[in-house]
Amino acid sequence: MTSVLYDAPGPKAIFRSRLFSVVAGLVIAAGLVWLILALGAPKTSANGAVQPGLWDVSRWDVFADREVWRTLGRGALNTLRMAGVAAAFALVLGVLFSFGRVSDTKWIRIPTTVVLEFVRGMPVLLMMLFILLVFSTGSFWAGVAALSVYNGAIIGEALRAGIKSLPRGQREAGLAIGLTPVATRFRIEFPQAFRQMLPIIIAQLVVLLKDTSLAFVVGYEELLRSGLYNLTNFFGSRYSFSFFLVVLAIYLTMNLLLSWLARVIARRTGSKSGGVTTDTKAPPEKPLDPEVVYPAALGNQMGARGL
Predict the structure, then answer these.
(1) Tens-digit pLDDT profile for the chain (307 aa)?
(2) What InterPro entries does the record point to (predicted)?
(3) Options 2.60.120.200, 1.10.3720.10, 1.10.357.140, 1.10.260.40; which CATH number does 65-287 get?
(4) The dihedral formed by the CA atoms of 259, 247, 148 and 97, expressed in degrees to the nearest 10
């Protein structure tokens, strides 16, 4: 189906687009090759000492030590533990915030809006430090509380948008069959809004997982602190880039798995949501049957002539 926003590209436009794509790809590939070679080249320090390149074996032999992998594993598990607990609380808070934002009572809706705007405008790191210093909760619960409140506010806004996007007849139908406004919101509107916004919620949980690295500042032994800071201090700065790449690979693996899960859920919910299709073409008309049309027309003509 052709687009109504712009005309289909012609042969020249297609050729220019492919040419620019090839040139851009070659430039990016050349830049990556140059970066890899530059990082692997030996470096000469100010005192004349020659340091091996970042790809030299002497910079990676530390990973033969099993204790290094145990430390990285503990850091990854601590990161997942904080992210899992914070995600559970964030979902609960998101549901409560969304109900407060769409409440018909202004004494609930207005304070909820003020709290949400304040939480969304406050940096997560400052929230962690505030909870740690004021409530003395410890590094783990300071990180969990800050991540739960902040991401709960974002999820609450997503659920509110999902509820508001539903047809008005959904709520009217629930009230018509005798449900209370709260029961209608919880049993009819909320399940549809949650399913519709589920990919966005999972994408926000990916952000939550990455934000666990902020707990490094409050002293929590998550992946960044244990895998980069502690190991670099113990083995020396010559391994800092090696630890950096390994920690980066672990973060990317966890985040890409969650992103893949979000795409899978988006496809499945989209295929079963029963939404309005984008194809607005009318179905082809059924050809007229001459045995039905012609006798009727002939009868009309005879009646008009008085036969």
Answers:
(1) 555 566 777 888 888 899 999 999 999 999 999 998 888 888 777 777 777 888 888 889 899 999 999 999 999 999 999 999 999 999 999 999 998 988 888 899 899 999 999 998 899 999 999 999 999 888 999 999 999 999 999 999 999 998 888 888 888 888 888 888 888 888 888 888 888 888 888 889 989 999 999 999 999 999 999 988 899 898 888 888 899 999 999 999 998 888 888 778 777 766 444 333 334 444 454 554 444 444 444 344 444 444 4
(2) AA_ABC_transptr_permease_3TM, ArtM/GltK/GlnP/TcyL/YhdX-like, MetI-like, MetI-like_sf
(3) 1.10.3720.10
(4) -30
Domain definitions of the chain by residue range? 65-287
pTM of the complete model beyond 0.90:
no
Measured CA distances, 247 to 84, 205, 225, 253 (Å): 19, 19, 10, 10
Q: Are 149 and 127 in contact (CB under 8 A)?
A: yes
Distances (CA, A) of 206 to 40, 87, 152, 202, 288: 32, 10, 13, 6, 58
Q: Is 232 exposed, middle or buried (0-12, 13-18, 19+ CB in 10 A)?
A: middle
| Cα–Cα distance measured from residue 80 to residue 147, given in angstroms and rounded to the nearest whole number | 13
Category of 306 on φ-ψ map: left (φ > 0), alpha (ψ -120 to 50) or beta: left
